[in-house]
Amino acid sequence: MCGIIGYVGAKEAAPIILNGLKRLEYRGYDSAGIAIVQPSGSTDVRKDIGRVAAIDAKLDFLGMKGTIGIGHTRWATHGGVTQNNAHPHISNNGKIVVIHNGIVENYQDIKRRLLDEGFTFYGETDTETIPNLIELEMRGGKDFETAARDAIKQLDGYYAVLAMFDGERKIVASRDGSPLVAGVGAGENFIGSDIPAFLEHTKTVMYIHDKDFVVIDDAGIRFKDLDGRAIERPVHSIDWSLEQAQKGDFDHFMMKEISEQVDTVQKAANQDKETLFAVADAVKKAKGVFLVACGSSYHACLSASYIFSKIANMHVNLVLASEFSNYEHFLTPDTLVIAVSQSGETIDVLDAVRTARRKGSKVMSIVNVMGSSLHRNSDLSLMLNAGPEICVLSTKTYTAQLAVLSLLAYTVAGRYDEGRESLQYLWNVIYNLTAANTRDYIKQLADKLKDKEHVFLIGRGLQYPTALEAALKIKEVSYIHAEGFSGGELKHGTIALIEPGTPAIVFSSADNEKEIISNAMEIKARGGYIIGVNAHSNEVFDFFIKTPEVGLLNPIVQIIPVQILAYQLAVLRGCDPDMPRNLAKSVTVK
Ligand code: G6P
Predict the structure, then answer these.
(1) Minimum-distance ligand 1 atom for the alpha carbon of 476
(2) 427 compared with 27, residue with greater pLDDT
(3) What pLDDT is recorded for position 249?
(4) Which residue has its alpha carbon closest to ligand 1 atom 8?
(5) pLDDT above 80 for 82
(6) 6 C-alpha to center of ligand 1: Å?
(7) Which of 368, 389, 586 to mutate to test the pocket of ligand 1 (most atoms within 8 A of CB)?
């Protein structure tokens, strides 16, 4: 996925776009570029590989003059990380510039046609076909806007695309499957792949729907369909604050967002009661409930499947969104699909929703981003209310998902009040777990583990999904190989890798302590270094992290020390916690 921003107004565009790119860097950070239509009418394009700040130092983005422009941060899909493949891309006649997020699946056909027409290409991206296709459309005498619309109509795949034409004070944009939202300011307008791109300028937004065609110029923002017919889209006010999208006193968003969990778990638990009860009712009435998600959201759903079983005596099906189509013959109009996603833009989740819709099933969601594709395509949504999560790793949204899913299970079981109170009790617990003294204590562990090649993590019952999520946190940010297992599984093969000093993090709780301690003993007997995460210590532990026993809510509290550990390992190993290599905040391509 990539980050996109556009600006039309009276101010210099470069500082606004540059700031927006810095805020969007979590969406992609291998290269970046800006195009600005200069007062003379010609377009200045500067782009390179690397992080936004480094490219700015080299190319002087702020030296670009003009009050309309577009900017892009890239996460490479088609074509390697090279200056040529960085966006914006320019048409052969040098007059049309385009930035794009997504994949043009039929780009080879389009490219062949363009080559036949004598066009040449300087890079390997699918995107480069788009400005040239617009140029081709303009050759027949069409104006830029019509040509852009007709070109976009020919694209298959997933895209959010912005285009400008030399000398015209206008940005045209469209999307299909990739996020794009317009920001309405006073005498100025914005467009971005995510609200933080322009949050410091306006909190008034208009969500762009798939296949909308949007024209932004000095007269304002106009919505059309791809045949050019005007359409109306509502204006929304959003309640995200700028502080939420800034690091404040923290060195990194990751630690800031870990610390915010004191409040975000409470905000998640503070669900709109009517919607919560309506979703609970749908769960009870459905003939078959599927939880569908990817990555950390999937781990939250795995926890939830145990919680539903334990508290609501109910089986819910759990499927990775990317595998969901394999289950489609079980879907009927009586099935309820609950899609869980922080961003609401993960392509596999959206595809699963399409599959469910095709079969007539009901679709509900648990999502953080208001107005996201998933939010708009759900019959009902429970909002995570976690505020923007900027770090690529999910931390506060993961525990918010756990809070919402747990509360839903309690509600289905007719025990809403008990669920609410149990979640309220966590405020104090999370406050202590994220306090400076806990962070210092965990740093001692990070110092011991920082040069290890492998970490294994085990848990049983609700501690099993926690082990999976904890392993994901460690590996994705510190690049130490980390694998999570259910306590019973490690000895079916992986125990062969335990050597003297190999660290194993052992999660346990009151209801599975005996068995998991036996598993820890097996690792210890082979020289493993045992780190216990539990309510009370045990002689098998070489290092102990105390987390109070909170029953079904243990997954919320037990992940927090390992989020902190993962963060500290990243810092000690010189890795960037907010933008780990090769990753993207939401995966909007297959
Ligand atoms: C990416 C992110 C993960 C996230 C997953 C699902 O891989 O790096 O942190 O868990 O996508 O994202 P979603 O927005 O659907 O929860």
Answers:
(1) 8
(2) 427
(3) 87
(4) 585
(5) yes
(6) 25
(7) 586
Separation between Cα atoms, residue 543 and residue 534, nearest integer Å = 11
Residue-wise pLDDT for 37-55, tens only, equals 999 999 999 999 999 999 9
Section 426-438 average pLDDT: 96
Q: How far is the CA of 405 from the centre of ligand 1 (A)?
A: 17
Among all residues, which ones are annotated catalytic?
2, 585
Query: 587: CA distance to ligand 1 center in Å?
Result: 7
Q: Could you give the percent of the chain with pLDDT greater than 70?
A: 100
* Residue 422 confidence (pLDDT) above 90: yes
Class of domain 3-238: alpha beta
pLDDT digits (tens, 9 = 90+) for 387-416: 999 999 999 999 999 999 999 999 999 999
Protein fold of 435-576: Rossmann fold (3.40.50)
pLDDT of residue 198: 95
DSSP string for residues in 277-341: HHHHHHHHH-SSEEEEE-HHHHHHHHHHHHHHHHHH----EEEEGGGGGGGGGG--TT-EEEEEE
The tokens for 399 are 């525990």
* Cα 391 to middle of ligand 1, angstroms: 11
Q: What gap in Å lies between CA 400 and CA 84, rounded to an integer?
A: 41
* Nearest-atom index, ligand 1, CA of 321: 15
Binding pocket residue ranges, ligand 1, CB within 6 Å: 294-297, 341-343, 346, 349, 392-394, 583, 585-587
Distance 451 CA to ligand 1 centre (A): 27
547 and 432 Cβ atoms separated by less than 8 Å:
no
C-alpha–C-alpha distance, residues 203 and 209, integer Å: 19
Instruction: Quote the pTM value.
Output: 0.86
The C-alpha atoms of residue 34 and residue 3 are separated, in whole angstroms, by 12
Residues of the chain with CATH 3.40.50.10490: 248-433, 435-576
Whether the pLDDT of residue 579 is over 90: the answer is no
248-433 falls under which CATH superfamily? Glucose-6-phosphate isomerase like protein; domain 1 (3.40.50.10490)
Position 504 pLDDT exceeds 80: yes
CA-to-CA separations, 323 to 176, 203, 295, 538, in angstroms, rounded: 22, 37, 13, 40
Mutate to test the pocket of ligand 1, among 29, 294, 338, 590 (most ligand atoms within 8 A of CB): 294
pLDDT, tens only, 538-570 = 999 999 999 999 999 999 999 999 999 999 999
Residue range(s) occupied by CATH 3.60.20.10 in the chain: 3-238
Give the distance (Å) from ligand 1 centre to CA of residue 341: 7
Q: Is 500 exposed, middle or buried (0-12, 13-18, 19+ CB in 10 A)?
A: exposed
Instruction: Identify which of 193, 383, 585, 588 to mutate to test ligand 1's pocket (most ligand atoms within 8 A of the CB).
Output: 585
Closest approach atom of ligand 1 to CA 584: 8
Alpha helices, H only, 345-395: 347-358, 373-376
Ligand 1 atom with least separation from CA of 349 = 15
